[in-house]
Amino acid sequence: MKKLIILSLFVFMCVLNAQDYLKIDFEQTKNYNQSASYVGKTTLTQNQSQALYIEFYNEEIEDFGTEEGDLVVSLGGGKSVYFKDYTNNSMLYENTIQFKHFPTKEKIDLIQWEIMSNETEEVLGYTCQIAIGEFRGRTYVAYFTDKLGFNGGPWKFDGLPGMILKVKSTDNMLNITAYSIELKNQNLTIENPYQDTKDFIDYAHFKDLYAIKYKEINRSEVLENGGMMTIGMPACQIECHVVE
Fold it and tell me: pLDDT tens digit string along 211-236?
């Protein structure tokens, strides 16, 4: 009887502390090389089964909420949108090759992480564990907390027992850090912005298409001063699509 009371109290406290959704704002820095870098704002909105991660190409983060408790996002318009459906372990987004869009579908848990059990760091007042993982040409360090009641993270970073609040590549190419967290006890329905999109490809197919275009247009030309100039697409941006 005593065990039953303790168990009931534990369940009651879990329900009491459960949050319906959270919203995290991130600052994202991409250092393409020594002379070219980009700093932008991103936002993650998530309920217990779905999530939307949006990269903005302008300074302001738009408010997509409605009074009815729906999150409706239109595609395009200076942003990239990633939709995660945790019930089906699927992620939808758009890849591009030479300004042509390719709707892509892949699973959410893409990265095999190694949790560094003895290391922690504080992010926005939350004590975070540290994990290391390799993903498509780069090694990443992720900082995650189990105190928010959600598992997930920005962009394609996911698969840890908690919410990733900070992630950075060891080569300083990418750094995503949370600067604002909002938790609410309010039902939020997240609408799939790709529900009318057809003909999704998987990442392996996209990678093959990218490699074909890469070989087609990449070339080197001799300059007047005797130097060389490479024309075409990079093998790697954030992800390495071509292995040279």
Answer: 999 998 887 777 777 777 777 788 88
Q: Which region among 125-134, 157-166, 234-243 has the lowest average model confidence (pLDDT)?
A: 234-243
The pairing of strands 70-71 and 189-190 is parallel
> If phi over 0 gives left and psi between -120 and 50 gives alpha, with beta otherwise, what is residue 181?
beta
Structure tokens at 123: 């992010």
What's at 145, amino acid-wise? Answer: T
For residues 123 and 100, what is the distance between their CA atoms, to the nearest angstrom? 38
Do residues 80 and 54 touch, judged by C-beta distance below 8 A? yes
For residues 32 and 237, give the distance between their C-alpha atoms in angstroms, rounded to a whole number: 7
Helices (runs of H) and strands (runs of E) counted in the chain: 2, 15
Q: What is the DSSP secondary structure assignment for residue 62, as one 8-state letter?
A: P
Other CB atoms within a 10 A radius of the CB of residue 244 amount to 7
Beta bridge partners of 27: 41, 177
**Partners of residue 112 on adjacent β-strands:** none
> Strand, helix or coil at 88?
coil
Token pair, residue 13, equals: 């406290």
Question: How far is 104 from 241, CA to CA, in rounded Å?
Answer: 14
pTM: 0.85
Per DSSP, what are the bridge partners of residue 228? 222
pLDDT in tens, 65-122: 555 678 888 787 788 999 999 999 999 999 999 889 999 999 999 999 999 988 899 9
